[in-house]
Amino acid sequence: MPTKEIAGVSVEVDGEGFLTDHKIWNLDLAAAIAKEEGIDPLTDRHVEVLNFMRKEFEENGTAPSIRKMNKLNIVPTKELYALFPGGPAKKAAKIAGLGKPQGCI
Amino acid sequence: MKKLLILGAGTAGTMMLNKMESVLDKEEWDITIVDQYETHYYQPGFLFIPFGIYNRRDVIKPKRDFFPPGVNVIFSKIDLIEADKNQVILDGGKVLSYDILLVATGTKINPGETDGMQEGGWHKNIFDFYTVEGAVALQQFLKYWEGGKMVLNIVEMPIKCPVAPLEFVFLADWWFTEQGIRDKVEIEFVTPLPGAFTKPKASKVFGEFLNKKGVSLTPEFSTGRVDWKNNKLVSWDETSIDYDLLITIPTNMGDDLIARSGLGDELNFIPTDKFTLQSQANDNIFVIGDATNLPSSKAGSVAHFQADILQDNLLSYIDGKPLRGKFDGHANCYIESGFGKGILIDFNYETEPLPGKFPLPGVGPFSLLEETRMNHYGKMMFRWMYWNLLLKGAELPIESHMLMAGKRA
Protein backbone atom coordinates (compact mmCIF):
# COMPACT_ATOMS: atom_id res chain seq x y z
CA MET A 1 0.00 0.00 0.00
CA PRO A 2 1.30 3.46 -0.82
CA THR A 3 1.70 5.89 2.06
CA LYS A 4 1.14 9.58 1.98
CA GLU A 5 1.90 12.46 4.30
CA ILE A 6 -1.34 14.15 5.36
CA ALA A 7 -1.40 16.85 8.05
CA GLY A 8 2.14 15.98 9.02
CA VAL A 9 1.46 12.27 9.53
CA SER A 10 2.35 9.40 7.24
CA VAL A 11 -0.80 7.37 6.50
CA GLU A 12 -1.66 4.41 4.26
CA VAL A 13 -3.87 5.24 1.28
CA ASP A 14 -5.16 3.37 -1.78
CA GLY A 15 -4.34 4.29 -5.37
CA GLU A 16 -6.88 7.10 -5.34
CA GLY A 17 -5.88 8.58 -1.99
CA PHE A 18 -8.64 7.03 0.17
CA LEU A 19 -7.49 6.08 3.68
CA THR A 20 -7.17 2.31 3.94
CA ASP A 21 -7.92 2.31 7.69
CA HIS A 22 -10.91 4.45 8.69
CA LYS A 23 -9.98 4.10 12.39
CA ILE A 24 -6.96 6.44 12.14
CA TRP A 25 -9.23 9.28 11.01
CA ASN A 26 -9.38 12.54 12.96
CA LEU A 27 -10.47 16.09 12.24
CA ASP A 28 -6.97 17.28 11.32
CA LEU A 29 -6.71 14.56 8.68
CA ALA A 30 -10.21 15.42 7.46
CA ALA A 31 -9.36 19.12 7.11
CA ALA A 32 -6.17 18.33 5.22
CA ILE A 33 -7.90 15.92 2.81
CA ALA A 34 -10.72 18.45 2.36
CA LYS A 35 -8.19 21.11 1.41
CA GLU A 36 -6.70 18.84 -1.24
CA GLU A 37 -10.23 18.35 -2.58
CA GLY A 38 -10.74 22.10 -2.77
CA ILE A 39 -12.85 22.46 0.39
CA ASP A 40 -11.40 24.99 2.80
CA PRO A 41 -12.28 25.56 5.55
CA LEU A 42 -14.11 22.48 6.77
CA THR A 43 -17.17 23.90 8.55
CA ASP A 44 -19.24 22.49 11.41
CA ARG A 45 -21.90 21.59 8.88
CA HIS A 46 -19.38 19.53 6.90
CA VAL A 47 -18.31 17.78 10.09
CA GLU A 48 -21.92 17.00 11.01
CA VAL A 49 -22.35 15.16 7.71
CA LEU A 50 -18.99 13.39 8.03
CA ASN A 51 -19.83 12.20 11.53
CA PHE A 52 -23.16 10.79 10.37
CA MET A 53 -21.44 8.98 7.50
CA ARG A 54 -18.88 7.48 9.84
CA LYS A 55 -21.56 6.35 12.29
CA GLU A 56 -23.50 4.65 9.45
CA PHE A 57 -20.29 3.04 8.22
CA GLU A 58 -19.52 1.61 11.67
CA GLU A 59 -23.06 0.24 11.96
CA ASN A 60 -23.64 -1.08 8.44
CA GLY A 61 -20.20 -1.50 6.89
CA THR A 62 -21.00 0.90 4.06
CA ALA A 63 -21.25 4.66 3.71
CA PRO A 64 -24.87 5.90 3.44
CA SER A 65 -26.19 6.91 0.03
CA ILE A 66 -26.99 10.52 -0.84
CA ARG A 67 -30.64 9.50 -1.01
CA LYS A 68 -30.56 8.01 2.47
CA MET A 69 -29.07 11.16 4.01
CA ASN A 70 -31.76 13.21 2.28
CA LYS A 71 -34.54 10.87 3.40
CA LEU A 72 -33.40 10.83 7.02
CA ASN A 73 -33.23 14.65 7.03
CA ILE A 74 -29.49 14.63 7.72
CA VAL A 75 -28.75 16.84 4.74
CA PRO A 76 -30.88 17.73 1.69
CA THR A 77 -29.31 16.58 -1.57
CA LYS A 78 -29.06 20.11 -2.93
CA GLU A 79 -27.09 21.24 0.14
CA LEU A 80 -24.87 18.17 0.03
CA TYR A 81 -23.79 19.04 -3.52
CA ALA A 82 -23.07 22.59 -2.36
CA LEU A 83 -21.00 21.33 0.61
CA PHE A 84 -19.01 18.83 -1.46
CA PRO A 85 -19.02 20.19 -5.02
CA GLY A 86 -18.43 17.84 -7.95
CA GLY A 87 -19.45 14.46 -6.59
CA PRO A 88 -20.43 14.35 -2.93
CA ALA A 89 -20.68 10.56 -2.60
CA LYS A 90 -17.03 10.07 -3.45
CA LYS A 91 -15.65 13.29 -2.04
CA ALA A 92 -17.42 13.15 1.32
CA ALA A 93 -16.45 9.48 1.77
CA LYS A 94 -12.82 10.39 1.12
CA ILE A 95 -12.84 13.24 3.62
CA ALA A 96 -14.66 11.03 6.15
CA GLY A 97 -11.77 8.61 5.89
CA LEU A 98 -13.98 5.86 4.47
CA GLY A 99 -13.20 3.64 1.48
CA LYS A 100 -14.29 4.52 -2.03
CA PRO A 101 -18.06 3.96 -2.29
CA GLN A 102 -18.97 0.74 -4.11
CA GLY A 103 -20.26 1.57 -7.56
CA CYS A 104 -23.49 -0.04 -8.64
CA ILE A 105 -23.71 -2.44 -11.53
CA MET B 1 -50.69 -28.17 4.81
CA LYS B 2 -47.66 -25.94 4.71
CA LYS B 3 -47.83 -22.80 2.63
CA LEU B 4 -45.46 -21.25 0.12
CA LEU B 5 -46.60 -17.77 -0.84
CA ILE B 6 -45.08 -15.95 -3.83
CA LEU B 7 -45.67 -12.21 -4.24
CA GLY B 8 -45.30 -11.00 -7.82
CA ALA B 9 -45.83 -12.96 -11.05
CA GLY B 10 -43.28 -11.25 -13.25
CA THR B 11 -40.24 -12.98 -14.70
CA ALA B 12 -38.72 -14.05 -11.37
CA GLY B 13 -41.96 -14.97 -9.57
CA THR B 14 -43.31 -17.00 -12.48
CA MET B 15 -40.04 -18.93 -12.89
CA MET B 16 -39.96 -19.73 -9.18
CA LEU B 17 -43.61 -20.81 -9.20
CA ASN B 18 -42.86 -23.34 -11.93
CA LYS B 19 -39.63 -24.50 -10.34
CA MET B 20 -41.15 -25.05 -6.89
CA GLU B 21 -44.36 -26.60 -8.23
CA SER B 22 -42.24 -29.23 -9.98
CA VAL B 23 -40.39 -30.28 -6.82
CA LEU B 24 -42.73 -29.78 -3.84
CA ASP B 25 -44.96 -32.62 -2.60
CA LYS B 26 -48.58 -31.59 -3.31
CA GLU B 27 -49.83 -33.55 -0.29
CA GLU B 28 -47.67 -31.38 1.93
CA TRP B 29 -47.43 -27.99 0.26
CA ASP B 30 -49.97 -25.47 -0.86
CA ILE B 31 -48.55 -22.91 -3.33
CA THR B 32 -50.10 -19.48 -3.92
CA ILE B 33 -49.01 -16.65 -6.20
CA VAL B 34 -50.38 -13.10 -6.02
CA ASP B 35 -50.12 -10.32 -8.60
CA GLN B 36 -52.20 -7.23 -9.30
CA TYR B 37 -52.01 -7.49 -13.12
CA GLU B 38 -53.19 -10.25 -15.46
CA THR B 39 -50.85 -9.36 -18.34
CA HIS B 40 -47.24 -10.52 -18.57
CA TYR B 41 -44.90 -8.17 -20.40
CA TYR B 42 -41.78 -9.29 -22.23
CA GLN B 43 -39.81 -6.32 -20.96
CA PRO B 44 -36.66 -6.78 -23.11
CA GLY B 45 -38.99 -6.08 -26.05
CA PHE B 46 -39.86 -2.55 -24.86
CA LEU B 47 -36.55 -1.33 -26.34
CA PHE B 48 -37.71 -2.22 -29.85
CA ILE B 49 -41.12 -0.53 -29.67
CA PRO B 50 -39.99 3.11 -30.16
CA PHE B 51 -38.37 2.10 -33.46
CA GLY B 52 -41.41 0.18 -34.70
CA ILE B 53 -39.57 -3.17 -34.66
CA TYR B 54 -42.07 -4.51 -32.13
CA ASN B 55 -45.54 -3.30 -31.22
CA ARG B 56 -47.52 -3.73 -28.03
CA ARG B 57 -48.99 -7.05 -29.16
CA ASP B 58 -45.47 -8.49 -29.61
CA VAL B 59 -44.60 -8.13 -25.91
CA ILE B 60 -47.72 -9.30 -24.06
CA LYS B 61 -49.31 -12.61 -23.10
CA PRO B 62 -51.75 -13.55 -20.35
CA LYS B 63 -49.95 -14.46 -17.11
CA ARG B 64 -52.21 -17.49 -16.73
CA ASP B 65 -50.54 -19.12 -19.76
CA PHE B 66 -47.42 -19.61 -17.64
CA PHE B 67 -48.93 -20.91 -14.40
CA PRO B 68 -48.86 -24.66 -13.82
CA PRO B 69 -52.14 -26.39 -12.88
CA GLY B 70 -52.80 -27.02 -9.19
CA VAL B 71 -51.50 -23.75 -7.76
CA ASN B 72 -53.63 -20.97 -6.27
CA VAL B 73 -53.62 -17.76 -8.29
CA ILE B 74 -54.90 -14.51 -6.82
CA PHE B 75 -55.12 -11.31 -8.84
CA SER B 76 -55.19 -8.56 -6.25
CA LYS B 77 -53.21 -5.63 -4.94
CA ILE B 78 -51.28 -6.33 -1.76
CA ASP B 79 -51.70 -4.06 1.21
CA LEU B 80 -49.06 -5.27 3.67
CA ILE B 81 -46.51 -7.92 4.52
CA GLU B 82 -46.62 -8.60 8.28
CA ALA B 83 -43.34 -10.42 8.68
CA ASP B 84 -43.64 -10.78 12.46
CA LYS B 85 -46.98 -12.60 12.03
CA ASN B 86 -45.98 -14.61 8.93
CA GLN B 87 -48.90 -13.20 6.99
CA VAL B 88 -49.79 -10.97 4.06
CA ILE B 89 -52.83 -8.71 3.90
CA LEU B 90 -54.42 -8.16 0.50
CA ASP B 91 -56.36 -5.05 -0.52
CA GLY B 92 -59.81 -5.53 0.94
CA GLY B 93 -58.48 -7.23 4.04
CA LYS B 94 -58.09 -10.89 3.04
CA VAL B 95 -55.29 -12.50 5.08
CA LEU B 96 -52.86 -15.05 3.62
CA SER B 97 -50.61 -16.86 6.05
CA TYR B 98 -47.35 -18.49 5.00
CA ASP B 99 -44.58 -20.79 6.12
CA ILE B 100 -42.25 -19.46 3.46
CA LEU B 101 -42.65 -16.12 1.70
CA LEU B 102 -40.96 -15.44 -1.61
CA VAL B 103 -40.90 -11.79 -2.62
CA ALA B 104 -40.57 -11.07 -6.34
CA THR B 105 -42.22 -7.67 -6.57
CA GLY B 106 -39.58 -6.20 -8.87
CA THR B 107 -38.67 -2.60 -9.52
CA LYS B 108 -40.32 0.19 -11.44
CA ILE B 109 -39.52 3.67 -12.64
CA ASN B 110 -40.47 6.63 -10.44
CA PRO B 111 -40.32 9.75 -12.64
CA GLY B 112 -42.03 11.67 -9.80
CA GLU B 113 -38.76 11.48 -7.82
CA THR B 114 -37.24 14.14 -10.09
CA ASP B 115 -38.74 17.64 -10.00
CA GLY B 116 -40.24 18.70 -13.31
CA MET B 117 -39.90 15.30 -14.97
CA GLN B 118 -43.52 14.20 -14.93
CA GLU B 119 -45.06 17.60 -15.55
CA GLY B 120 -45.83 19.50 -18.76
CA GLY B 121 -43.24 17.74 -20.92
CA TRP B 122 -44.04 14.17 -19.89
CA HIS B 123 -44.85 12.03 -22.93
CA LYS B 124 -44.76 15.23 -25.07
CA ASN B 125 -40.99 15.62 -25.52
CA ILE B 126 -39.88 13.68 -22.42
CA PHE B 127 -40.29 9.91 -22.65
CA ASP B 128 -39.33 6.74 -20.83
CA PHE B 129 -39.12 3.39 -22.60
CA TYR B 130 -39.25 1.23 -19.45
CA THR B 131 -43.06 1.03 -19.56
CA VAL B 132 -45.15 -0.13 -22.49
CA GLU B 133 -47.05 3.18 -22.35
CA GLY B 134 -43.83 5.18 -22.58
CA ALA B 135 -42.42 3.04 -25.38
CA VAL B 136 -45.63 3.27 -27.44
CA ALA B 137 -45.91 7.06 -26.93
CA LEU B 138 -42.29 7.44 -28.03
CA GLN B 139 -42.90 5.37 -31.17
CA GLN B 140 -45.70 7.75 -32.08
CA PHE B 141 -43.47 10.79 -31.42
CA LEU B 142 -40.46 9.48 -33.38
CA LYS B 143 -42.60 8.68 -36.41
CA TYR B 144 -43.07 12.39 -37.05
CA TRP B 145 -39.90 13.91 -35.51
CA GLU B 146 -37.84 15.89 -37.97
CA GLY B 147 -34.68 16.05 -35.88
CA GLY B 148 -32.97 18.11 -33.22
CA LYS B 149 -31.05 17.26 -30.07
CA MET B 150 -31.89 13.96 -28.40
CA VAL B 151 -30.56 13.50 -24.88
CA LEU B 152 -30.64 10.12 -23.17
CA ASN B 153 -30.31 10.47 -19.43
CA ILE B 154 -29.92 8.03 -16.55
CA VAL B 155 -31.09 9.80 -13.39
CA GLU B 156 -29.41 7.57 -10.80
CA MET B 157 -28.16 4.03 -10.31
CA PRO B 158 -29.13 1.25 -9.91
CA ILE B 159 -31.46 0.76 -12.87
CA LYS B 160 -33.11 -2.25 -14.39
CA CYS B 161 -31.15 -3.63 -17.36
CA PRO B 162 -28.15 -1.28 -17.17
CA VAL B 163 -27.24 -1.91 -20.84
CA ALA B 164 -30.65 -0.83 -22.20
CA PRO B 165 -29.76 2.89 -22.33
CA LEU B 166 -26.71 2.07 -24.49
CA GLU B 167 -28.81 -0.14 -26.73
CA PHE B 168 -31.31 2.67 -27.11
CA VAL B 169 -28.76 5.16 -28.46
CA PHE B 170 -27.14 2.51 -30.71
CA LEU B 171 -30.55 1.70 -32.19
CA ALA B 172 -31.45 5.39 -32.45
CA ASP B 173 -28.28 6.02 -34.50
CA TRP B 174 -29.33 3.21 -36.87
CA TRP B 175 -32.97 4.26 -37.02
CA PHE B 176 -32.30 7.93 -37.76
CA THR B 177 -29.88 6.79 -40.49
CA GLU B 178 -32.64 4.61 -42.00
CA GLN B 179 -35.06 7.55 -41.85
CA GLY B 180 -32.53 9.71 -43.70
CA ILE B 181 -32.34 12.29 -40.88
CA ARG B 182 -29.20 11.20 -39.00
CA ASP B 183 -27.45 14.44 -40.06
CA LYS B 184 -30.27 16.41 -38.43
CA VAL B 185 -30.07 14.61 -35.08
CA GLU B 186 -27.52 15.20 -32.34
CA ILE B 187 -27.36 12.42 -29.72
CA GLU B 188 -25.94 12.90 -26.21
CA PHE B 189 -25.63 10.16 -23.58
CA VAL B 190 -25.80 11.63 -20.06
CA THR B 191 -24.98 9.36 -17.12
CA PRO B 192 -24.10 9.63 -13.42
CA LEU B 193 -21.42 6.94 -13.98
CA PRO B 194 -17.78 7.87 -14.69
CA GLY B 195 -18.06 6.30 -18.17
CA ALA B 196 -20.37 4.49 -20.59
CA PHE B 197 -20.76 1.51 -18.23
CA THR B 198 -19.92 0.40 -14.71
CA LYS B 199 -17.08 -2.06 -15.33
CA PRO B 200 -13.74 -0.71 -16.66
CA LYS B 201 -13.12 -2.95 -19.70
CA ALA B 202 -16.72 -2.89 -20.90
CA SER B 203 -16.92 0.85 -20.18
CA LYS B 204 -13.96 1.44 -22.50
CA VAL B 205 -15.38 -0.77 -25.28
CA PHE B 206 -18.83 0.85 -25.07
CA GLY B 207 -17.26 4.32 -24.93
CA GLU B 208 -15.53 3.55 -28.23
CA PHE B 209 -18.83 2.37 -29.72
CA LEU B 210 -20.56 5.60 -28.69
CA ASN B 211 -17.77 7.57 -30.31
CA LYS B 212 -17.90 5.50 -33.52
CA LYS B 213 -21.63 6.08 -33.76
CA GLY B 214 -21.33 9.81 -33.26
CA VAL B 215 -22.95 9.86 -29.79
CA SER B 216 -21.37 12.30 -27.34
CA LEU B 217 -20.86 11.08 -23.76
CA THR B 218 -21.39 13.25 -20.67
CA PRO B 219 -20.31 11.25 -17.56
CA GLU B 220 -20.74 12.07 -13.86
CA PHE B 221 -23.90 14.11 -14.37
CA SER B 222 -26.22 13.84 -11.35
CA THR B 223 -29.69 14.88 -12.44
CA GLY B 224 -31.35 17.25 -9.97
CA ARG B 225 -34.40 18.43 -11.89
CA VAL B 226 -35.94 18.96 -15.31
CA ASP B 227 -36.72 22.53 -16.39
CA TRP B 228 -39.37 21.35 -18.84
CA LYS B 229 -40.53 24.85 -19.75
CA ASN B 230 -37.08 25.66 -21.13
CA ASN B 231 -36.15 22.10 -22.21
CA LYS B 232 -33.17 21.86 -19.88
CA LEU B 233 -31.87 19.00 -17.79
CA VAL B 234 -30.30 20.49 -14.64
CA SER B 235 -27.79 18.77 -12.33
CA TRP B 236 -27.70 19.11 -8.55
CA ASP B 237 -24.75 21.49 -8.94
CA GLU B 238 -26.62 23.63 -11.49
CA THR B 239 -24.99 22.70 -14.75
CA SER B 240 -27.59 22.32 -17.47
CA ILE B 241 -27.97 20.43 -20.73
CA ASP B 242 -30.39 21.54 -23.46
CA TYR B 243 -32.59 19.02 -25.21
CA ASP B 244 -35.31 18.93 -27.83
CA LEU B 245 -36.18 15.33 -27.01
CA LEU B 246 -35.37 13.80 -23.62
CA ILE B 247 -35.30 10.02 -23.24
CA THR B 248 -35.00 9.39 -19.53
CA ILE B 249 -34.35 6.41 -17.31
CA PRO B 250 -36.00 7.73 -14.12
CA THR B 251 -35.08 6.63 -10.60
CA ASN B 252 -35.79 2.91 -10.18
CA MET B 253 -37.42 1.84 -6.93
CA GLY B 254 -38.89 -1.29 -5.42
CA ASP B 255 -42.63 -1.54 -4.85
CA ASP B 256 -44.34 0.78 -2.34
CA LEU B 257 -45.58 -2.37 -0.60
CA ILE B 258 -42.02 -2.97 0.59
CA ALA B 259 -41.82 0.52 2.10
CA ARG B 260 -45.28 0.20 3.71
CA SER B 261 -44.22 -3.11 5.25
CA GLY B 262 -40.96 -1.66 6.59
CA LEU B 263 -38.85 -4.22 4.75
CA GLY B 264 -36.87 -2.02 2.37
CA ASP B 265 -33.91 0.33 2.13
CA GLU B 266 -34.20 3.94 0.96
CA LEU B 267 -35.02 2.73 -2.59
CA ASN B 268 -37.52 0.11 -1.31
CA PHE B 269 -35.17 -2.74 -2.18
CA ILE B 270 -35.03 -5.57 0.37
CA PRO B 271 -31.70 -6.20 2.14
CA THR B 272 -30.91 -9.73 0.98
CA ASP B 273 -27.98 -12.12 1.44
CA LYS B 274 -26.10 -11.75 -1.84
CA PHE B 275 -25.21 -15.46 -1.97
CA THR B 276 -28.21 -17.34 -0.49
CA LEU B 277 -31.04 -14.92 -1.43
CA GLN B 278 -32.50 -15.16 2.08
CA SER B 279 -33.75 -11.83 3.42
CA GLN B 280 -31.45 -10.39 6.06
CA ALA B 281 -34.26 -9.65 8.49
CA ASN B 282 -36.38 -12.83 8.35
CA ASP B 283 -35.25 -16.44 7.90
CA ASN B 284 -38.48 -17.54 6.20
CA ILE B 285 -38.54 -14.69 3.68
CA PHE B 286 -36.57 -15.11 0.46
CA VAL B 287 -36.17 -12.51 -2.25
CA ILE B 288 -35.43 -12.85 -5.95
CA GLY B 289 -34.86 -10.62 -8.98
CA ASP B 290 -35.15 -6.85 -9.07
CA ALA B 291 -36.73 -6.65 -5.59
CA THR B 292 -33.40 -7.42 -3.87
CA ASN B 293 -30.69 -4.93 -2.93
CA LEU B 294 -28.01 -7.22 -4.41
CA PRO B 295 -25.00 -5.62 -6.12
CA SER B 296 -25.84 -7.56 -9.30
CA SER B 297 -27.61 -6.33 -12.42
CA LYS B 298 -31.37 -6.03 -12.30
CA ALA B 299 -32.25 -8.19 -15.31
CA GLY B 300 -34.18 -11.28 -16.34
CA SER B 301 -31.03 -13.30 -17.02
CA VAL B 302 -29.87 -12.58 -13.48
CA ALA B 303 -33.23 -13.65 -12.02
CA HIS B 304 -32.96 -16.84 -14.09
CA PHE B 305 -29.54 -17.70 -12.68
CA GLN B 306 -30.77 -16.83 -9.18
CA ALA B 307 -33.79 -19.11 -9.62
CA ASP B 308 -31.64 -22.25 -9.92
CA ILE B 309 -29.78 -21.36 -6.73
CA LEU B 310 -32.92 -20.35 -4.86
CA GLN B 311 -34.73 -23.58 -5.72
CA ASP B 312 -31.90 -25.54 -4.04
CA ASN B 313 -31.84 -23.23 -1.05
CA LEU B 314 -35.61 -23.37 -0.49
CA LEU B 315 -35.46 -27.17 -0.46
CA SER B 316 -32.55 -27.09 2.02
CA TYR B 317 -34.46 -24.61 4.18
CA ILE B 318 -37.54 -26.88 4.18
CA ASP B 319 -35.32 -29.80 5.24
CA GLY B 320 -33.84 -27.67 8.02
CA LYS B 321 -30.36 -27.86 6.45
CA PRO B 322 -27.82 -25.08 5.83
CA LEU B 323 -28.28 -23.13 2.59
CA ARG B 324 -25.57 -24.37 0.28
CA GLY B 325 -26.53 -22.62 -2.95
CA LYS B 326 -24.35 -19.57 -3.54
CA PHE B 327 -25.36 -17.07 -6.21
CA ASP B 328 -22.25 -15.60 -7.86
CA GLY B 329 -23.81 -12.46 -9.38
CA HIS B 330 -23.88 -14.00 -12.87
CA ALA B 331 -25.37 -11.79 -15.62
CA ASN B 332 -25.53 -12.41 -19.36
CA CYS B 333 -26.70 -9.63 -21.66
CA TYR B 334 -27.20 -9.40 -25.40
CA ILE B 335 -26.72 -5.78 -26.40
CA GLU B 336 -28.35 -4.67 -29.63
CA SER B 337 -25.89 -2.34 -31.37
CA GLY B 338 -27.81 -1.37 -34.50
CA PHE B 339 -27.49 -2.25 -38.21
CA GLY B 340 -28.34 -5.90 -37.48
CA LYS B 341 -25.49 -6.50 -35.06
CA GLY B 342 -25.10 -7.13 -31.36
CA ILE B 343 -22.56 -7.37 -28.53
CA LEU B 344 -22.65 -9.97 -25.75
CA ILE B 345 -21.37 -9.62 -22.18
CA ASP B 346 -21.14 -12.29 -19.45
CA PHE B 347 -19.94 -11.41 -15.95
CA ASN B 348 -20.48 -11.84 -12.19
CA TYR B 349 -19.70 -10.20 -8.81
CA GLU B 350 -15.96 -10.81 -9.17
CA THR B 351 -15.24 -10.94 -12.89
CA GLU B 352 -15.93 -8.00 -15.17
CA PRO B 353 -17.09 -8.56 -18.78
CA LEU B 354 -14.19 -10.01 -20.78
CA PRO B 355 -13.69 -10.85 -24.45
CA GLY B 356 -13.93 -14.47 -25.70
CA LYS B 357 -16.42 -17.00 -27.10
CA PHE B 358 -19.74 -18.13 -25.59
CA PRO B 359 -21.25 -20.52 -24.54
CA LEU B 360 -18.78 -23.04 -26.02
CA PRO B 361 -15.18 -22.01 -25.23
CA GLY B 362 -13.25 -21.19 -28.43
CA VAL B 363 -16.28 -22.02 -30.58
CA GLY B 364 -19.16 -19.70 -29.76
CA PRO B 365 -21.33 -19.22 -31.72
CA PHE B 366 -21.51 -15.95 -29.80
CA SER B 367 -18.63 -13.51 -29.30
CA LEU B 368 -18.09 -11.69 -26.03
CA LEU B 369 -17.46 -7.92 -26.00
CA GLU B 370 -17.43 -7.90 -29.81
CA GLU B 371 -20.00 -6.72 -32.32
CA THR B 372 -21.29 -9.55 -34.53
CA ARG B 373 -24.36 -10.45 -36.56
CA MET B 374 -24.66 -13.74 -34.63
CA ASN B 375 -25.00 -11.87 -31.33
CA HIS B 376 -27.94 -9.97 -32.85
CA TYR B 377 -29.61 -13.28 -33.80
CA GLY B 378 -29.08 -14.43 -30.21
CA LYS B 379 -30.93 -11.36 -28.98
CA MET B 380 -33.86 -11.83 -31.35
CA MET B 381 -34.08 -15.56 -30.64
CA PHE B 382 -34.24 -14.88 -26.93
CA ARG B 383 -37.89 -13.82 -27.04
CA TRP B 384 -38.85 -17.35 -28.11
CA MET B 385 -36.71 -18.83 -25.34
CA TYR B 386 -38.26 -16.46 -22.81
CA TRP B 387 -41.89 -17.38 -23.55
CA ASN B 388 -41.31 -21.09 -24.19
CA LEU B 389 -38.55 -22.13 -21.82
CA LEU B 390 -37.42 -19.52 -19.33
CA LEU B 391 -40.75 -18.55 -17.73
CA LYS B 392 -41.75 -22.20 -17.46
CA GLY B 393 -38.65 -22.87 -15.40
CA ALA B 394 -37.07 -25.18 -18.01
CA GLU B 395 -33.33 -25.73 -18.18
CA LEU B 396 -31.45 -23.44 -20.57
CA PRO B 397 -28.12 -24.39 -22.14
CA ILE B 398 -26.25 -21.87 -19.95
CA GLU B 399 -24.73 -22.62 -16.54
CA SER B 400 -26.07 -20.70 -13.53
CA HIS B 401 -22.55 -19.98 -12.34
CA MET B 402 -20.36 -17.96 -14.65
CA LEU B 403 -17.58 -19.94 -16.35
CA MET B 404 -14.10 -18.57 -17.05
CA ALA B 405 -13.56 -21.07 -19.89
CA GLY B 406 -13.66 -19.26 -23.24
CA LYS B 407 -12.83 -15.88 -21.72
CA ARG B 408 -9.60 -13.94 -22.24
CA ALA B 409 -8.53 -12.02 -19.13
Question: Which tags fit this structure?
Answer:
heterodimer, A: 105 residues, two-stranded antiparallel sheet, B: 409 residues, alpha/beta, FAD/NAD(P)-binding domain, 3 domains, 5-stranded parallel sheet, 25 strands, globular
Describe this structure in words.
- The complex is a heterodimer of chains A (105) and B (409).
- Chain A has helices spanning 27-36, 44-60, 66-71, 77-83, 88-95, and strands spanning 3-6, 9-12.
- By secondary structure, chain A is mainly α.
- In chain A, strands 1-2 form a two-stranded antiparallel sheet.
- Chain B has 409 residues and is of the alpha/beta class.
- Chain B has three domains: 2-106 and 255-318, FAD/NAD(P)-binding domain, CATH 3.50.50; 110-251, FAD/NAD(P)-binding domain (3-Layer(bba) Sandwich); 331-390, no CATH class.
- Chain B has a five-stranded parallel β-sheet with strand order 5-2-1-9-20, with helices on one face. Chain B has a five-stranded parallel β-sheet with strand order 11-18-12-13-14.
- In chain B, strand 16 (232-235) and strand 17 form a beta hairpin.
- The mean pLDDT of chain B is 96.
- Chain A binds chain B through residues 65, 67-68, 71, 77-78, 80-82, 85-87, 102-105, and chain B through 156-158, 162, 193, 198-199, 220, 222, 224, 236-237, 265-267, 295-297, 329, 331.
Provide the fold topology.
The complex is a heterodimer of chains A (105) and B (409).
Chain A: E1 3-6, E2 9-12, H1 27-36, H2 44-60, H3 66-71, H4 77-83, H5 88-95
Antiparallel strand pairs in A: 1-2
Chain B: E1 2-7, H1 11-23, E2 29-35, E3 39-41, E4 60-62, E5 72-75, E6 78-82, E7 87-90, E8 95-97, E9 100-103, E10 107-109, E11 126-127, H2 132-144, E12 148-154, H3 164-178, E13 185-190, H4 200-212, E14 215-218, E15 223-227, E16 232-235, E17 240-242, E18 245-249, E19 252-254, H5 256-260, E20 285-287, H6 300-318, E21 331-338, E22 341-347, E23 356-360, E24 364-368, E25 371-372, H7 373-390
Parallel strand pairs in B: 1-2, 1-9, 2-5, 9-20, 11-18, 12-13, 12-18, 13-14
Antiparallel strand pairs in B: 3-4, 6-7, 7-8, 10-19, 15-16, 16-17, 21-22, 22-25, 23-24
Helix pairs in contact in B: 1-6
